Fold this sequence. Notes:
- This protein is 38% helix and 25% strand.
- It is α+β, with helices and mostly antiparallel strands.
- The strands form 3 sheets. Strands 1-12-16-14-13-17 form a 6-stranded antiparallel β-barrel.
- The chain has helices at residues 2-25, 95-120, 124-157, 164-193, 197-222; strands at residues 46-54, 62-64, 70-75, 82-83, 88-92, 225-227, 232-237, 244-246, 249-251, 258-259, 262-265, 270-278, 291-297, 303-311, 316-317, 332-341, 353-360.
- A hairpin with a 5-residue loop joins strand 13 (291-297) and strand 14 (303-311).
Amino acid sequence: MKNKILFILALAGIATALYSAHLYSQKPPSQPPVFNPAPNPYSDGIYANGIIESLQTEGENINIYPEVQGPITRILVAEGQKVKKGTPLLTIDQSVQRATAEQQKSQADAALAMLDELKAQPRPETLEVAAAQVACAKAALKSARDTLAKQERSYTLDPQSISLDVLDNARNAASVAEANLAVAQKQYDLTKAGAWSYDIENQQKQQDALAKAYEASAALLSKYTITVPVDGIVLSIEAATGSYVSPQGAYGTYTEGFSPLVVMGTPQDSLEVRCYIDEILVHRLPDASIMTAKMFIQGTDISIPLTFERLQPYVSPKIELSNQREERVDVRVLPVIFRFEKPKDLNLFPGQLVDVYIGQKQEAPGTGKSP
């Protein structure tokens, strides 16, 4: 009985294994694609990766970097907001620079005051003192001369009346008084002449240097408020209030690298697509006069016709579509830019990747012209 049960269990295990093997050997049917791959609409079309940008007459999107460093104190705009040229975007802590500018302004004001003082010389009160000293010296000279004249007259009348020593002292006193008058007069003339021209020139240069230092400091102070360079729309703000920024930009928490503090674009009624043509396909690129292109939105069956805008005649490494700036690549690409009108019922944004096919316009039969 026991052997019979074991035999039955063995047969059941074998049957289960065979059925399982049969099930696993069956290939499940393929799932249909969520959307069809972008078809090539041209007989000899060139495929290219593309990235949507705001429409620019030159360059790419407007990347704004601060010229100074410090923590952000206020952000005055919002992403997606339309702004006018000169509108403040954000402010960076300016406490240290403001104190420096105020100190340099005080130094420049002090130098200007000193310059005005030199130009205003002589001071009337100082000139009056010098004049009084001249008058005093004249009086002392007159007294000394009068005394000398009396003693000489007395000596002439009676040589025994005055000793030669007293007479010599009177003569010396008159000479000293005369010299003192000459010194007082020269001091008066010097005071009346005012400041020396070289002193004024030197002070003028010092005042100019301090004034320019203040101007430079004030100009740097204005950099702590970042303003809108052109009319446009704010696409991205890469930092929050309190974040520390520098001329390298803002540090990204997720990318762990530096990026522009603010990215701006033009109003988005019209956009452009920057396509990267592989260097091995550049020779097949049609002339601009007959070039046409079509853009396909990834993940959909939607396509949009494009109009040739410009070509950047410089082939560069293909690293533009990634953040890996240390990526080692051998492929080089040529940027070609197309523009298009943004459909009102379709969400499209700068930075979005698209598929682009580039072809050439076909001539209408029998006309020799493009249809």
